[in-house]
Amino acid sequence: MSSTEQGTSSAAPAEPTTAPESAAAPEVPESFYYVHGKDKVVHKVSAGALQHSALIHGMISNLGYTEEQAKANPFPFENIDGDILQMVVDWCNQHKGKPTPPEDTNLPKQKEKLFDLVLAVNYLEIKELLTYCCKQVAMMVKGKSPEEIREIWMIPTDAEDEAAEKEAKKRAGKEAAGETAAAAGDAK
Amino acid sequence: MPIALLKFPTDLLRDVFKLCNPIELYCLSKCSKRTQRSIKLSGTRNWKLFSGSNRAAMHVDDWMYSFYKAEKPEAHFKQVDSDKYVRIQCPEGDVDLFFILLDTFGIRLVGMLSIDFCNFESFSKIANILIERNMEVERFHIGCSTGTFPNLRWLQIYGKKIDNQSPILDMIPPIQIVGNPRVEVTFGYRKDIVDGVPVSKDDGTVGWLKVELGGRWPELKFLVVNPDDTVITPR
């Protein structure tokens, strides 16, 4: 299992310049967690960055891991491609502790990854990023005709939908018949 | 790069639809029966629909989205986009267009039903279906913007929304003539206006309006004069 360390550079605290030493608030060391996707590459992410994900935030709260336990048990997201998880981690790091602007220029630009990115962000429950992604999806059809929309959003025609429905029914019928035959065989 | 929108989970589809304007959703609904069903199932919208002859409009977040019937098929779905205004040409007109928009978007409130330039049959058909569905119409508009009366002779409406708050032909009821001269205007059997108010248009046509606010159901009567068959009798 390989590992990348994301978000660690921003973890170094700035030196206080004006406040007297006695008045300085005690520094709380930032905690880190580990996540991996389908490619098993582990990403180290600060708790602050992971706050964006309601799913991971909930997991952290429920599990109450120590730093060591977190390191030994990375959160597995087997349904998310490695490069997509990397994009999500990058976005969370860039927006750590910051209010998210109405228009996000740091949004991943690769259109071909947008579908997987939207699904991953939806699964991880990252509300702001999901809104940006959905906006990008919606923008794809601005000013387009139904024919153009059909191509952009890969919408099957009515005939294609009917054919797919027939095929699904046929398959379901075959499977049901197979199960009945198997049950009859077991009874004998 | 294409994206398989219909493979999104339902809640995600709903999020994307929320970010689309009425014209984008209308075009999407024209892609297939499935997309139309998906939009319908994504919930009702608090948009107001306005109707007129061969056109409909939707007012959403300070933007006006107008749908017009295209004269030629090659103009279908052509869009014009300007400041706070988007216009599209549609294959449907009148009643079909109105109900496609109403049903696809799950609209519950009709902002205005207008009969200026509109043929009265369409207006009547829409009004009848809305009454059957028990839908609320905020305002009826008897058109005057073109300087002519709409294409009708006689209009009689009973409605609780006829009150002393809403203007009718730019006048707030009670509507009476100064000095109150008594006149009876008749046209055909039981189509009469007693002590109404004459309203003239730029083209010289005259209509008589009578609004009665008292009683269980306030009543509006409107008659467009045709010199061939309308009798005006002083009383």
From TrEMBL, chain A:
Domain SKP1 component POZ: 38-96
Cited SUPFAM superfamilies: POZ domain, Skp1 dimerisation domain-like
GO biological process: protein ubiquitination; ubiquitin-dependent protein catabolic process
Residue stretches of biased makeup (Low complexity): 8-25, 178-188
InterPro entries with a match to the protein in the record: SKP1 (IPR016897), SKP1-like (IPR001232), SKP1-like_dim_sf (IPR036296), SKP1/BTB/POZ_sf (IPR011333), Skp1_comp_dimer (IPR016072), Skp1_comp_POZ (IPR016073)
Compositionally biased tracts (Basic and acidic residues): 165-177
SMART domains: Skp1
Region feature Disordered, mapped onto this chain: 1-25, 160-188
Pfam families attached to this UniProt entry: Skp1 (PF01466), Skp1_POZ (PF03931)
Domain SKP1 component dimerisation: 127-170
Swiss-Prot/TrEMBL keywords: Ubl conjugation pathway
UniProt pathway: Protein modification; protein ubiquitination
Family stated for the protein in its record: Belongs to the SKP1 family.
PANTHER family with a match to the protein in the record: SKP1 (PTHR11165)
Function: Probable essential component of SCF (SKP1-CUL1-F-box protein) E3 ubiquitin-protein ligase complexes, which mediate the ubiquitination and subsequent proteasomal degradation of target proteins. Regulates cell proliferation during embryonic and larval development.
Name this polypeptide is given: Skp1-related protein
Automatic annotation (TrEMBL), chain B:
Regions crossing the membrane: none
InterPro entries: F-box_dom
One of the Pfam families matching this protein, by short name: F-box
F-box domain span: 2-50
PROSITE patterns associated with the record: FBOX
PANTHER family assigned to the protein according to its UniProt record, in alphabetical order: F-BOX DOMAIN-CONTAINING PROTEIN, F-BOX-CONTAINING HYPOTHETICAL PROTEIN C.ELEGANS
Protein name: F-box domain-containing protein
UniProt organism field: Caenorhabditis nigoni
